[in-house]
Amino acid sequence: MLATLASEVLGRELAIDSADVASLARRLLDESLSDGPVAIAVAPCDASRLHLPLPVRIDATLSAGDIVLDVRDGAIESRFAVRWRDAIERALDEP
Question: Considering its fold, how many domains does the chain have in total?
Fold first, then answer.
């Protein structure tokens, strides 16, 4: 019950506040420089928020807040649902 309530509240707050996609993308890019980033993909609604030194690819299959960093040898995904689940798990683990 507590996990469900926390999940609903956090999900609602994140949706209202809207993920800071530009900040998340910059952090992902900074953490992945050694992987040779070549482009970044985001949902259509997030594309205008990005001002990065690499091409931005609009991917209609991505949801708001999702980021996929294309690198030399593949891709690094940072999806909103995964970040949200991790935040809930961390919140429930804290005393």
Answer: 1
Residue recorded with tokens 């949200």: 84
User: Which residue range is the domain that position 67 belongs to?
Assistant: 2-93
Using CA atoms, how far residue 4 sits from 7, 32, 68, 83, 89, in Å, is 5, 33, 28, 16, 11
Which residues partner with 75 through β-bridges?
70
For 33-82, what is each residue's pLDDT tens digit?
888 889 999 989 888 888 888 999 999 998 888 889 999 988 888 877 77
CA distance 60 to 23: 21
Residue 57 has what pLDDT?
Answer: 93
